[in-house]
């Protein structure tokens, strides 16, 4: 069940981490007072550099994972809408991998498509 909401979790973590990147960069480099009045990390001292590095790493990873999930969702839907049985059969391993990664909803869609095309396995 949790796999169905994985994209949303990845996206939220990406957004939070990019906010930490912006706040850290503002505190360390830019010093925009308007943003510093809203929120600042000055109270953590030298940990600001570590927060900046960690948030860049976290953002990079989860942005990639969000892109990967979105790409898999797009590929899955494109292959299911294919009007060619041959194309569908050639891509069954990819479809099964994607459905396993994305959760029960996609597994159910794949099962329905297999039934539609008359594929037993």
Describe the fold and architecture.
It is a single chain. This protein is an all-alpha fold. The protein has one domain. Helix content is 79%, strand content 0%. The protein contains six helices and no strands. α1 (6-30) runs antiparallel to α3 (47-80), α3 packs across α5 (92-102) and α5 (92-102) packs antiparallel against α6 (104-117). The protein is rod-shaped. The chain starts with 5 loop residues before the first helix and ends with a helix. The mean pLDDT is 87.
Helical percent range? Answer: over 70%
Number of helices: 6
Multimeric state: single chain
For the biggest sheet, the summary is: none
Radius of gyration: 21 Å
Task: Indicate the overall shape.
Answer: rod-shaped
Order of helices and strands: HHHHHH
Average pLDDT, all residues: 87
Distance between the termini: 23 Å
Number of domains as seen in the coordinates: 1
Low-confidence stretches: none
Secondary structure tally: strands:
0
Proportion of β residues? under 5%
Task: Offer a quick outline of the entry.
This protein is mainly alpha-helical.
Keywords for this structure?
mainly alpha, 6 helices
Write the layout of secondary structure elements.
Layout: H1 6-30, H2 33-38, H3 47-80, H4 85-90, H5 92-102, H6 104-117
């Amino acid at each position: 069940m949790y796999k169905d909401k994985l994209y949303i979790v990845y996206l939220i973590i990406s957004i939070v981490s990019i906010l930490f990147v912006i706040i850290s960069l503002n505190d360390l480099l830019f010093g925009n007072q308007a943003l510093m009045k809203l929120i600042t990390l000055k109270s953590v001292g030298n940990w600001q550099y570590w927060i900046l590095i960690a948030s860049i790493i976290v953002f990079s990873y989860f942005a990639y994972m969000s892109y990967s999930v979105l790409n898999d969702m797009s590929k899955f839907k494109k292959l299911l809408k294919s009007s060619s049985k041959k194309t569908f059969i050639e891509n069954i391993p990819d479809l099964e991998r994607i459905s396993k990664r994305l959760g029960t909803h996609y597994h159910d869609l794949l099962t329905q498509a297999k039934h539609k095309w008359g594929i037993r396995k």
